[in-house]
Amino acid sequence: MNDLYQLAALILLATVTAGLVRIFIGTYGVARLLALQLFGTTAVAIVLLLSEGLQQPVLRDLALVLGLLASTMSIAYVRYSGVKSDTDRPGKKND
Amino acid sequence: MSVTVALSQTPIARVKKMTDLLGWLLICAGVVFFLLGTLALIRFPDLFTRLHALTKADNLGLGMIAAGLALHSGSIAAAMKLLLIWLLIMIASASVSHLIARTAHKTEYSREHNA
Question: B70: closest CA among B58, B79, B62, B61?
Answer without folding.
Answer: B79
